[in-house]
Amino acid sequence: MWSKLGTTAAFALPAIILRVLGIEIPPGLTVLVYGAGVVAAAVLLSWAAEAAQVDISGSLAIAILALIAVLPEYAVDLYFSFTAGSNPEYAQFAAANMTGSNRLLIGIGWPVVAFVGFWALRRARGRKVPMDPTVANAPGDATATGYAVVLPPRNRVELAFLAIASAYAFLIPLTRSIAWYDAVVLLALFGAYLWRVTREGRGEPELIGVAADIARLPRSRRRALVASLFVAAALIVVAAAKPFADGLVVSGEALGIDQFLLVQWLAPLSSEAPELIVATIFAWRLRADEGLGMLLSAKVNQWTLLVGSLWVAYALGGGAGAPLPLDDRQTEEFLLTSAQALLAFAVLADLRFGLREAVAIFALFVLQFPFPTTEVRLVFSVVYILVAAGLLVSRRRCLPPTFASIGRWRTSDGAGPQAAAFD
């Protein structure tokens, strides 16, 4: 455990030293050095948040884990928004980073969990590895047509808040800005979500790797180490976020690469990689439901807290209370992200995420890249919305219990959700 903690921290050390000493390095190297710091901080945060589950209620722990794991992403995005208050050129990067991170979670993260979970189940059954019946509880072979990640009923809470936030998000492209009232609504939604998950009962977490080693420490040592990791990672993020963000912008200009695309995809990939790795490990350990549940909670966090906080950072940076403007491209990206979120809700409305759905979501995400034009973004937005509408009609019976979950707590499904099921 200690060697892994030390090795991870060592990756952030060059970023800390350079920032403290004020040494400037070439833009490309800046992205690599400070990007490594961001990734290291995210890994430390993930381990600390997972270990903290032994002291916090189950659902709240998952929500906090999802929130903390994306803190490096928040730091980079809020820096762009804060700077945009005095430098309008940075406004586009705030929207770029936010839309990229949100779409990555669904377009890459969710399918990867399903693919890895399916492969792990086939591997376990092929090797005749004994399995907990609550994890893989149905007979038959692990066939691609029958496999699905099955979420427990308690995840209806995340789905309900995702649906509400996604419906509201469609209003933002109409005004072509993120205003104070958008921040109020979205931050209130996040507060309500966080309050709601604190009402859930507490179960025993299943931890792996470094997080499990930390959790086995005596209570006082465990809490001290978790707190230290939080503080250390926060300091790394504070030190690395600004030079990493600026390095992306300068590198794009120097290399002739579209700065919007570089900020939209490279920054979220580096800051969210640890979160995706944690979710993948859950899936490999036949706990795909926990991995998908964590990414679902992260999506709710980003779609409420992150988007709402953009205006706050913009105002504090010199925006003087004015709305954070969105140009044509940002408006289209926001619309596309909202449409994808709506489809994500529709796909999970029945609490099942099958391989065919995973392939479809992954394909819709990847097919956008070769054609970064207005027409293509609008066409994909329409496709997302139409498919989502069809799914919601066919799964309309799933909607009442989903929205009713907001008013219930301490669900009876317990702490042992099913990871996979077969038709």
Can you describe what's shown?
With about 425 residues, the protein is mainly alpha-helical. It has one domain (about 1-410): Up-down Bundle (A middle domain of Talin 1), CATH 1.20.1420.30. It contains 16 helices and 5 strands. The longest helix has about 35 residues, at about 220-255. It is globular, with a radius of gyration of 21 Å. The relative contact order is 0.20. Mean pLDDT is about 80; it is low at about 130-140 and about 410-423.
State the main characteristics:
3% strand, 423 residues, 16 helices, A middle domain of Talin 1, 72% helix, mainly alpha, disordered C terminus
Number of helices: 16
CATH class: Mainly Alpha
Q: What name is given to the CATH topology?
A: A middle domain of Talin 1
Helix-strand category: mainly alpha
Spatial strand arrangement across the major sheet: 4-1-5
Q: Topology as H/E string? A: HHHHHEHHEHHHHHEHEHHHE
Helix content: over 70%
Distance between the termini: 41 Å
CATH superfamily: NCX, central ion-binding region
Cα-atom radius of gyration: 21 Å
CATH architecture: Up-down Bundle
- Portion in strands: under 5%
Q: Number of domains in the coordinates?
A: 1
Work out the number of β strands: 5
Query: Largest sheet, described in full?
Result: 3 strands, antiparallel
Query: Low-confidence parts lasting 5 or more residues at pLDDT below 50?
Result: 129-141, 409-423
